[in-house]
């Protein structure tokens, strides 16, 4: 029986904004599948919560109403996940 394990997979915690910037730099995917964000400038398409209230209003977006607030702080979530993996490894 052959078994292949990639230990690095346990530490692979993706950063959604970075992934979006890298693999959808012009925001085409987001604009197609998340029409609420279609009018946002490209630099904000992967992180609409960073737009100013005036900028959001000019595109018809109201965080928490027409588009949800962020569900998680990804940096904090990453730290929690890495800590959990470390605890698992300790046994």
Automatic annotation (TrEMBL):
It comes from the Bacteria. Keywords: FAD, Flavoprotein. InterPro entries: Crypto/Photolyase_FAD-like_sf, Cryptochr/Photolyase_FAD-bd, Cryptochrome/DNA_photolyase_1. One of its GO terms (molecular function) is DNA binding. Gene3D superfamilies: DNA Cyclobutane Dipyrimidine Photolyase, subunit A, domain 3. Its cofactor is FAD. One of its GO terms (biological process) is response to light stimulus. Residues 5-86 form the Cryptochrome/DNA photolyase FAD-binding domain. This is Cryptochrome/DNA photolyase FAD-binding domain-containing protein. It comes from Bradyrhizobium centrolobii.
